[in-house]
Structures are given as C-alpha cells and as structure tokens.
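Worked example 2:
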Amino acid sequence: MNKFSKRGDKKGVISEYLPWILIALAVLAIVFVSIFLLKDKGFSLIDSIKDLFKGR
C-alpha cells in the first residue's frame, strides 16, 4: 500500500504546481511577443530597464 500512497502524492504535487508553470509560460510568451513586435522600442525598453537597475 506504500506504493499507492506515493503515486497519489506525486499527482498532488504536479497538480499543485501545474497552474504556476502555465502562468509562468504565459508571462514569458507575452514578454517575447511584445519584444518581437516592438523590435526597436523593445530593445530600448530593455535598455531602460537595465539603466533602472543600474541606478542611472
């Protein structure tokens, strides 16, 4: 019976993390599409974010 309880735990962990993985993939897809659509503006946006973290 130990084997069956371990299988149930794995399914619980997968079903617990699956929504977060899907949300992360959706956010990454949105970021990549926005950078692709705004090629010139996208790179300047990345540069401005880098400057923000540098403190300039």
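The chain has a mean pLDDT of 76. The first helix runs from residue 2 to 37.
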